[in-house]
Amino acid sequence: MSEQDALVVFTPSGRRGRFPVGTPLLQAARALGVDIDSVCGGRGLCGRCQVTVCEGEFSKHGISSRADSLSPVAENEQAYIRRRGELKPGRRLSCSSQLQGNCVIDVPPESQVHRQIVRKRAEVFDIELDPMIRLYYVEVQQPDMHLPTSDLRRLKEALDFEWRLENLWSDIRVVQEIQAALRTGDWKVTAAIYDDQRIIAVWPGFQSRIYGMAVDVGSTTIAAHLCNLQSGEVVASAGRMNPQIRYGEDLMSRVSYVMMNPGGNEDMTREVRQAINDLALDLATEAGIALTEIIEATFVGNPIMHHLLLGVNPIELGGAPFALATGDSVSGLQATELDLFIHPNARVYVLPCIAGHVGADTAAIILSETPYLTEELTLLVDVGTNAEIVLGNRERVLACSSPTGPAFEGAQISCGQRAANGAIERVRIDPDTLEPRFKVIGSDLWSNEPGFDAVVQKTGVTGICGSGIIEVMAELYLAGIITQDGIIDGSLAARSERIVADGRTWSYVLDQSDDRTLSITQNDVRAIQLAKAALYAGIRLLMDKLGVDSVERIGLAGAFGSHIDVKYAMVLGMIPDCPLENVKSVGNAASTGARIALLNKKARLEIEDQVQQVEKIETAVEPRFQEHFINAMAIPHKTDGFPHLRGRFTLPEPRFIERDDGSEGGGRRRRRRRRVA
Amino acid sequence: MSEQDALVVFTPSGRRGRFPVGTPLLQAARALGVDIDSVCGGRGLCGRCQVTVCEGEFSKHGISSRADSLSPVAENEQAYIRRRGELKPGRRLSCSSQLQGNCVIDVPPESQVHRQIVRKRAEVFDIELDPMIRLYYVEVQQPDMHLPTSDLRRLKEALDFEWRLENLWSDIRVVQEIQAALRTGDWKVTAAIYDDQRIIAVWPGFQSRIYGMAVDVGSTTIAAHLCNLQSGEVVASAGRMNPQIRYGEDLMSRVSYVMMNPGGNEDMTREVRQAINDLALDLATEAGIALTEIIEATFVGNPIMHHLLLGVNPIELGGAPFALATGDSVSGLQATELDLFIHPNARVYVLPCIAGHVGADTAAIILSETPYLTEELTLLVDVGTNAEIVLGNRERVLACSSPTGPAFEGAQISCGQRAANGAIERVRIDPDTLEPRFKVIGSDLWSNEPGFDAVVQKTGVTGICGSGIIEVMAELYLAGIITQDGIIDGSLAARSERIVADGRTWSYVLDQSDDRTLSITQNDVRAIQLAKAALYAGIRLLMDKLGVDSVERIGLAGAFGSHIDVKYAMVLGMIPDCPLENVKSVGNAASTGARIALLNKKARLEIEDQVQQVEKIETAVEPRFQEHFINAMAIPHKTDGFPHLRGRFTLPEPRFIERDDGSEGGGRRRRRRRRVA
């Protein structure tokens, strides 16, 4: 190092050093350990090593930095520009620029190997891009009769020499294709390397892009995101119905199908795999890429979807003791082993399951929301036919599943329906007049606003979707129409025509037209009470285990969590008391977890490790579950105080009404209560 | 350890120790590091841990050993005997016998884990049984709702607890089958573990046998042996024609077929794999086992067969620089990846190739014959369409291939044919009368013995096979009918009617009937000269590289080597001079090498390592090859002295005859030689 050497400072890392004039900038960066990406190994092909020369006086560094501190634009930079278009102003390819004098060089985020994929929500960590499969461009020695090594051996030698990738294995399909690739590419090829260990694909010449898909296999829908594994960006998203629905709407009816139809699991396995193939094609089409450019896929799903995807008969999950065939992650599986037709050597990673009722989707939510890294006691709830519940912080994390049944999704509700245009999703009830107003999906107008009828003319008002059911129940309670015990108060029929007799119970008429009536019946209320009591009891059980009476943060996952108004969920007592501003939808966190595992290989080890440490609680064998369940039947709760909620809402005072429908809800015990508070 | 303890001495290892009375013998053996096999983990199921109590006074050990030094025959030994029949006299199951007093216990070879498979030939090492895939019997914990681990996890825990197998991975098909296996087997299963790392199969209950097949894929025939992986014995052998023959008899014509018919390699790949499937069925049928009990297969073959088996287009092997796609061993491949239908999770191992002309079959010969372990300079020759040549000892090993062409196999010879009933395989010619006698395959009589005509009536005398060609050429030379230069001496027509004019050259009539004449023509002699000159020149080239003029041991591999009379091969100058008693057939050493790799996993590493170290010589680029070739055209050789041979045979004095067939053999140079010595 001499005074003749040029001083270079890289930002944002601040790493600095002196190098002889003429040193390629990329080489200087590597010598200093500066994180700059490169696929082509410094040949000016990939354009990933772009940097910006900072121009001006940098007194902090004692450097006057100018554009001509680097060598003039070189031939291969010009060639790159001819192929790919102009670089951004001030940008150079660091592999093709030599140091001419002192300079300050900025490495933009997109040129860093381990760049961050920024997530929208503030409370979660960004994803660090560090994919399992990476591309490496090499020039391979031609064969020589004097030195008869194989083409594969020479490829391995080149990968070792240029990229320090040692002791590589290779897929048999790489062996089958390597000779054509080398000769077509004139001895220049791009290799895809799995985990720095295994050559899984070889393309002639320079291949700049590979993609991965992150798939959330739900019982109702299958959602998938296609990501560029070089940039981390989502380039396409798609969803499809799970075709297994024709074997049963919910999970247990699918397991029953297998019990009644031996071999039926194979049909369901075939159908879900076909749907994933269709989804892959949707994604590739949307992104304008070939299916064979998708070289990896990650999967999450509940245990039954997980087993059916893997070709495992889910029958053991249909009854106690709910034994998983495997809960371990499935790593490095060939996509062809699951009959997936993307790149023929594509790999599959399936996240670990937690227990027989708590699947890889919940593991993915944990990976996305990282309760194990937080100080705050965090509750994560994924509501579906079953609710998966996670509670914990950096000290301990617990998980369980609770059998809510499908009421929250609109099933078992007389006028319930899927979320679709025409479905009621928002409801308000005037506590004085007991008159309702509502919004339907597809319209921004309330039902009492001018123009509403015109807007909904096309779809009609067809039913109530999940979030609408939560709201109508909570509003009925807040308006005093249903009591804390969930009884529709028939005495109010005198005040409002909307309270109508329905056999020995009462109903509330939400909307009426010539050809149909949308009512909330006593049975509907009861169904929601049972579902929310099961959910709350599961949560309460985990709180017991931790010895806490409140939680600090609540995340609601899934489509349901995205549409629900959290305050109504709390009014209804679905979730425990908590400062309302700390209750948020976490979106499709399962899908996000699948995407994190796709983009970051260390995240796979992290979630595998966390899943081992999660304490699994089986609600069915917990003696206190029943007690919690009974207390949680009340709205919002029989015994828990909900101080934060009461700070925001005036909840009706408890009243007790004799119930006349002896058939449900433990009527006898209630009949003794005659007091109306 | 107290004087109350029992003293036990195990033979043949001599290991000894004291253990409390009541200690199970197997446990004592393990504590002392005595090599005793067990699959069932000491449950009296597998019967592999049998030992013999030695009865009598053993003054050497200071022990009086009696049958009642062990506990009486236990219930599970009786159960074993009921299932499997009586034990040999004095035998006990060591897992079920407890020490009662001092004793001497003999561990028979078949009870040792690393037992030796004895080979017939004295000069080679026995095979140590140490297969890649082993069986382990375990009892697995039942699932428990309080501890919701998966079935796979509990299987792994049992394998860890009982067998110290840690960090196991498993195939996806194991995941698919594990639940049924555990429940059918009442939580007792046998697992097949690959390389102590991966669970590849699970059977309900106790499974005692698994098999492997060792396959030599030759261009003409495919030979396979089925071995019991627990005992090492060959339980069935079978061979089939390579169906690729219809695309071309020899290797180069198959490569030409691919050149002319793009995609033709895929047809050949499909056909060879189908033939291997057929062979597997032949083997399983012969051994009375299910195809699914075959859980591993090892393969050897020349580079073109190797590539076609693996699904690699062999076209690059058809021309310089003869680049292999891969020469590395192929390890842990799933049999299904080669469309082989044995056990669905069966694994495949393909031995490494040495160079573009020197394949995995030659590697297998090296593994079988271990020249790299010998002091003696060893020459190994495998004669086929090409000859593969290996020369070396523990210092250095060299290998090359030489283009002999198919003359030695009877092709290009006017009356040549495959070895089959009716083919002449032995020939003698009386040097005085010039009359021949011969033997044909299928008869033990010489043609001049009484009864010969009757015996061969059915097949006729149809042609000459490879070994017969070598003999007739050598005998023609020894009888003085052909000269050192390979000219049939027409002047002898005066002495024998068997020398007949054939255009401008002469032929020797070996046998004549009404409808056909079997003659050796001048062209036949020339074809053999070219072939043997190529072989010898290749050998000589390797000798040059080592700076030697003779070799100490010669092994002739393959079917040709088994039938040839080595002294005639030396008379003809196919092989260099060597003490005749050190020239032997090594049988199908390629097949043996495949079997060694099947039975011993360390042998795989050994041959992979050796192949790296073998010096590959490419005859086509060696300047001296041509010179060696020309000198080797003479019989036995133009310049090399063959002292050992001359010590056993009186070779004719060199004579020179003007040749009249200017069309062949460098006639002009020869015409100058007029001297008859």
TrEMBL record, chains A, B:
Protein name according to UniProt: DUF4445 domain-containing protein
Biological classification of the source: Bacteria, Pseudomonadati, Pseudomonadota, Gammaproteobacteria, Oceanospirillales
InterPro entries: 2Fe-2S_ferredoxin-like_sf, 2Fe-2S_ferredoxin-type, Beta-grasp_dom_sf, Corrinoid_activation_enz, Raco-like_middle, Raco-like_middle_sf, RACo_C, RACo_linker
Source organism (scientific name): Natronospirillum operosum
PROSITE patterns: 2FE2S_FER_2
GO MF annotations, alphabetized: iron-sulfur cluster binding
PANTHER family: IRON-SULFUR CLUSTER PROTEIN (PTHR42895:SF2), IRON-SULFUR CLUSTER-BINDING PROTEIN-RELATED (PTHR42895)
Segments of skewed composition (Basic residues): 668-677
CDD domains per the UniProt record, alphabetical: fer2 (cd00207)
Region annotated Disordered, chain positions: 656-677
Annotated ranges, domain 2Fe-2S ferredoxin-type: 6-111
Pfam families xrefs: Fer2, RACo_C_ter, RACo_linker, Raco_middle
